[in-house]
Write a structure and sequence with these properties.
This protein has 383 residues and is of the alpha+beta class. A hairpin with a 5-residue loop joins β7 and β8. α2 packs antiparallel against α5. The longest helix has 18 residues.
C-alpha cells in the first residue's frame, strides 16, 4: 500500500514538472474570486440536490496557456445549504445546514479557464459529498432527527400531508403536487415528528388525479414540511413553500382597459442558452401560477437590467460581477453567453489560422501546496 502511494505521488510530481504547473497561494485575490465564481457555475449547472457554499480553498495550481489565458485547478471544500439548486436565491444568501440536521460537506475538484479578457469558463468539476455519520450525531445530540430514505412510507405520507395543508390555505389558482422528495428525517423524542423537503409541480387536474413525478412537468417550487404527533387526529402540520419563478403582472398604460398581460417566467433547464422572456396573453379560463405580489413594469422597450431575474444563473452571476469582480483590480467575470467552456470549431471555407486552444489535463493534479496559506481559512464553523 505504501508503495502505491509513493508511485501516485511521483506520478503527480512528474505531471506537474512536465506541464509547467505552478502552485498559487490560496489567499490570492484572483483565486478567491475564481473560487466563488466556480461555486456559482457549479450550482447553476446542477439540476438536483441543494446548492453548495464555498467553505475553504484547499489547493490551487495554475497552468499558463499563452494567448488562451490561464487554467486554474481549484481544490475547493464546500458545504450543503438549505436552498434547492433551482432556487433563484444566491448561494451566498443561503443558510448552511446545521449539524443537528445531519450536515453534509464535500470536496469539488474544479477546472476553470481564465482568459486575458477577464472572462472565466467552467471546464469540468467533480464533487464528492460526505454526510455526517448517524453515530456521530447520536453521540453529540441523542434527540436530533436522523435521516430517512426519501422513498419510505413515512416520508411520502409527511410530504402529502403537509402539501395538502398548503393547497388548502394557498391563494394560488392551481393545485400543487409532490414532484420529488429530496430529504426526509424522523425523531422519536421528546415528541414524535417527521420532517421532509420536496420539490413541487403544478397540477393540471384535481389533486386526486395528479400523481407525483408526472412526465413533462417541471418543478415550480420547493417546500419544507413537518408533522408533529403520532396520531392523525392530534397532528400538528407545518409547511412553508418557495415558488421558484412566479409570474409577474405587467401593467401597460395603453392597454389597461383591455385584457391583462402577464410576463411568463419559465425556468430554463438548459443553462447553456438563456432565453429572453416572452409576453403571453392569459385568458380567464386558464389558471396560471401567479404570486400574490405584483410588480408594475412600464410600457415600451426596457433594458434587460430592469427585468427581474428569470433564473438563478442571471441573479447569481449579476451579483458576482457587481459586488466582487468589479470591485477589485483583477477582472474575473462571467462570459456574456455561456460559462461552460466549448472548443471553437473552425470553418473549412474560411482560410484563417486556427485560434490558440488551451490544453487541459486529463487527471486532476493533487500535489500538496508548498504555501502556508493552503489550505485556506474556513468560512463557516462546523462541529
Amino acid at each position: 500500500m505504501l508503495t502505491l502511494i509513493w508511485i501516485f505521488l511521483a506520478a503527480n510530481i512528474l505531471c506537474v514538472l512536465g506541464t509547467n504547473l505552478v502552485h498559487v497561494p490560496c489567499d490570492d485575490k484572483i483565486v478567491e474570486k475564481l473560487s466563488r465564481l466556480a461555486v456559482t457555475y457549479i450550482n447553476e449547472d446542477r439540476q438536483t440536490g441543494y446548492k453548495f457554499a464555498l467553505n475553504r480553498i484547499t489547493n490551487v495550481q495554475a497552468h499558463q496557456q499563452g494567448l488562451a489565458g490561464k487554467i486554474y485547478y481549484l481544490d475547493l471544500d464546500v458545504l450543503e445549504t438549505k436552498c434547492h439548486v433551482l432556487s433563484p436565491k444566491s448561494w451566498k444568501k443561503c443558510a448552511i445546514r446545521p449539524f443537528m440536521e445531519t450536515q453534509i460537506s464535500g470536496n469539488c475538484n474544479t477546472t476553470v479557464l481564465h482568459t486575458p479578457e477577464g472572462f472565466s469558463y467552467l471546464y469540468s468539476y467533480d464533487c464528492t459529498l460526505f454526510p455526517d455519520p448517524p453515530e456521530k450525531l447520536r453521540l453529540t445530540c441523542p434527540v436530533c432527527p436522523v435521516l430517512l430514505p426519501v422513498d419510505s412510507n413515512e416520508a411520502i405520507a409527511t410530504a402529502r400531508t403537509s402539501l395538502l395543508k398548503y393547497n388548502i390555505q394557498s391563494t394560488l389558482p392551481v393545485s400543487l403536487t409532490v414532484n420529488t422528495i429530496t430529504r426526509a428525517s424522523h425523531q422519536s423524542s421528546p415528541v414524535s415528528a417527521s420532517f421532509v423537503e420536496y420539490t413541487i409541480q403544478e397540477c393540471s387536474f384535481p389533486e386526486v388525479q395528479c400523481e407525483p413525478g408526472n412526465k413533462g412537468k417541471e418543478p415550480v417550487g420547493f417546500c419544507v414540511g413537518e408533522v408533529l404527533g403520532p396520531d392523525h387526529g392530534q397532528q400538528d402540520v407545518k409547511v412553508s413553500c418557495e415558488i421558484f419563478h412566479p409570474q409577474v403582472h405587467v401593467v401597460i398604460p395603453t392597454q389597461q382597459e383591455e385584457k391583462s398581460t402577464t410576463l411568463s417566467k419559465t425556468p430554463t433547464h438548459n443553462i447553456r442558452h438563456i432565453s429572453e422572456p416572452t409576453f403571453q396573453d392569459v385568458g380567464k379560463d386558464t389558471p396560471r401560477l401567479v404570486e400574490p405580489v405584483y410588480q408594475a413594469i412600464p410600457a415600451g422597450p426596457a433594458p434587460d437590467a430592469a427585468l427581474p431575474a428569470s433564473s438563478s444563473e442571471s441573479s447569481e452571476s449579476a451579483e458576482t460581477s457587481s459586488s466582487e469582480e468589479l470591485s477589485g483590480s483583477v477582472r474575473a467575470v462571467k462570459p456574456p453567453l455561456n460559462f461552460r467552456y466549448a472548443p471553437r470549431r473552425q470553418r473549412r471555407q474560411i482560410p484563417t489560422p486556427p485560434p490558440h486552444s488551451p490544453v487541459f489535463l486529463s487527471v486532476f493534479p493533487s500535489v500538496p501546496s508548498p504555501f502556508r496559506s493552503c489550505p485556506g481559512v474556513s468560512r463557516y464553523t462546523t462541529v
